[in-house]
Design brief:
single chain; alpha+beta; 6 helices; disordered N terminus
Length: 209
């Protein structure tokens, strides 16, 4: 039986679309330009020059690539302590939800919190090791989830980006620590008193019966 093998170039480019952050920086741009020129990022049921999101919605491949690269640049701006670039990738009405239950920041409040850290030359470093993109039917929004390598070990980032011309801006970013199921009871016991106290405050504040 003759087994046809996919060209190596096509396999590389297709893999790059799914996980471009895993490639070496020196390889990423040449492969992106090659893909955009040749239109080879596609499966048998995809149109040339298009790619499918996790939810099966077909979008132009350049938009899919830019969505992932926007998140890469967002994390890199924080790691390189570039305040204006970091917050420039968020819409004016953006929200950042941190790991603490009380951390729900509008962009202006988040900027106020982050400014001292950036001014000291030390913000935070998060590197995506896995990412999934889900596009709206009209290609104006993309929902994302990503697994992150951070100083807090593995965390999960999720959120929404909106399309502005050919660019993407972050509308919401939610950062959450991951907890192995085998360690969940230990974690619950560790934070039980803190959470109970905070929960009572929130219930009273919001007049929840």
């Amino acid at each position: 039986m003759l087994i046809k093998r996919k060209p190596i170039k096509r396999m590389l480019i297709k893999r790059m679309l799914i996980k471009p952050w895993l490639l070496k920086p020196s390889l990423t741009l040449p492969i992106i330009f090659m893909a955009m020129a040749c239109g080879t990022i596609q499966s048998d049921h995809q149109k040339e020059g298009h790619a499918n999101g996790e939810n099966g919605v077909e979008v132009p491949q350049n938009l899919a690539i830019k969505a992932s690269l926007t998140l890469d640049r967002y994390h890199r701006a924080a790691a390189e302590v570039r305040f204006d670039d970091y917050f420039g990738m968020m819409t004016d009405s953006a929200v950042f939800v941190g790991t603490d239950a009380g951390e729900h920041w509008r962009k202006s409040a988040f900027m106020e919190y982050a400014r001292p850290h950036f001014d000291k030359g030390k913000a935070w470093t998060m590197r995506a090791v896995e990412r999934h993109l889900h596009f709206s039917v009209d290609s104006q929004f993309v929902w994302f989830e990503e697994l992150l390598d951070t100083r807090m070990k593995l965390c999960r980032g999720s959120g929404v980006m909106s399309r502005h011309g050919q660019d993407w801006l972050i509308e919401q970013y939610v950062l959450s620590p991951t907890v192995p199921n085998s360690l969940m009871k230990e974690v619950i016991d560790t934070k039980r008193h803190y959470d109970d106290s905070l929960l009572n405050q929130i219930i009273n504040k919001n007049n929840i019966k």
